[in-house]
From TrEMBL:
InterPro entries the UniProt entry points to: Integrin_alpha_N (IPR028994)
Lineage of the species this protein comes from: Bacteria, Bacillati, Bacillota, Clostridia, Eubacteriales
Name this protein carries in UniProt: FG-GAP repeat protein
Amino acid sequence: MRKYARVIILIISLGSIITGCGNVVNTTSLIQAPMLENVEENKINKELKEILTPGSEFLVPKNSQEKQSIFIDDVDKDGKNEAFVLYRNMKENRQVHLLMLKEENEKWNKVLDVATNFNILDYFTLKDLDGDGKKEVILGTSVSDSELSKQLFIYELNGKELVNKVNRTYEWIDISDYNEDNRPDVIIIDGEIGKSKIAEMFNYENNQLKSRTFVGLNPEGVIENVVSGKLADGNNALFIDSALGAHSMLTEIVTCDKGRFIKIGDENDGILFKAYPLYSRDINNDGIIDVGGMYIPKGFEDAAMAEIPFIYTYSDYKEDGTHEIVEERYTDSVQHFYITIYSKWHGKVTIQKLDQGVRLIDNESQDNLFEVKWISKSSYGENKTKLGETKDIIFYDDIKEEQPISKENFHLLKDEF
C-alpha cells in the first residue's frame, strides 16, 4: 500500500530526539550532553535515563503537525506542568507507550506509563476540546503501517490517572476550527474500503464525541495524503488525496458551508481525478492549498500510459467549484528535475524526447521553448551551459541564444524539498 507522502515518520533512538512544547532541542544534546538551554528539559532528561530501559526509542507521531516526542503543558490547570513522553519499548514487542511525568517541588516524577498494545504512533496532541480550560490528551495508534483502520483514544487527566473517555476507530484525524465558531472541531475520516467512507465533524461534549455533520467519500479510495488548509476564497477545507485502482488518484475537497460538510468541484474534471498520484500542497507558499492535476500533451494521445510525459498543473479551488491554474510544470521523475512553464503557455506545450534530453515545444508555432540535456560528469564539457547537477549527472543546454523559457525555470526536485 502506498504510504502517506506529506507526513514523515521519525522514529528516533535515545541519542536523537525532538522535544518540548514549541521548543525544538537538539536530540543528541537532550540525552547525552549536560549543557542544555532549558533547565526543565534537563531535569526531564535525567529522569528519563532512570525510567527508560536501554535501547528504548522515542516516537514522533507521523500524522501530527507537532513533530516532537515530549509534550510539556499544564493539562489540568493545577499550576504544575505535566510531561507526556512517547516512546517504544524494544524489549516489549515494540508497542507504543505514553509515559507521564509530573512536576512537583522542582522535580519531575513518574506518574504513570500507559502501554497501548499498538505498534505505530499515528497521532498525538494536547487540546482543550470542550472549552473548560483543561486539555484533553488525544492519541492515535495502529497495529502496523499497512493497516488502514487505526484506534483513537481521548483521555482526561483526573489526579494521577488518565481516564479514557473515547475509544473508536478512524482512518485519518484532524483537529481544527472548520466552522469558525472559535472552538476546535474533531474531523474523522472512517469507513470500510469498497462499502462506505465518510468525513465527519464532531464536537467533544460531556466526555463524548457528538456528530455535527458528515459527507460521503469515494468508498474505493485508499487515503495517501490529507491536507488541512485554505481554499482560494479563504474558507477552511480538507484536501483528501486517495489512490484508486492500480495507479490513479482522486482528490476530494471537503469544506463546511452553513454548518454542514459539502464536497466541492467536479471529480471528473481532469484535475481532481488524475492518472497518477499527485498530492495537494501549497505549491507557491501563498497560504492556499493547490490541487495537483495532469494532462496529456499534444501528440501523445494514443501513447501507452507509461510513455506519456504528463504535464502537471496545480490549481486553486473556490467553494463554488471554480478553479484557476497557478502553476504548470513538466516533471521528469526519472531524472529528478522539473521545468516551470510561464502562464501564457499553460495548456499549449508539448514534449519532444531526445537522446539524453528533452524539449518543450509550442503547440502552435512549433518553436523550441526550452531544452535540457543530461550527461555523466566524466563526459561533461565546459562549452555547455550548466543548469544543475546531481552526484553523477550534469544537466545542461548547448543553445547559444536565450530560450523563451528562462534557464531559471529549471529546478532539481531535491531543491524543492
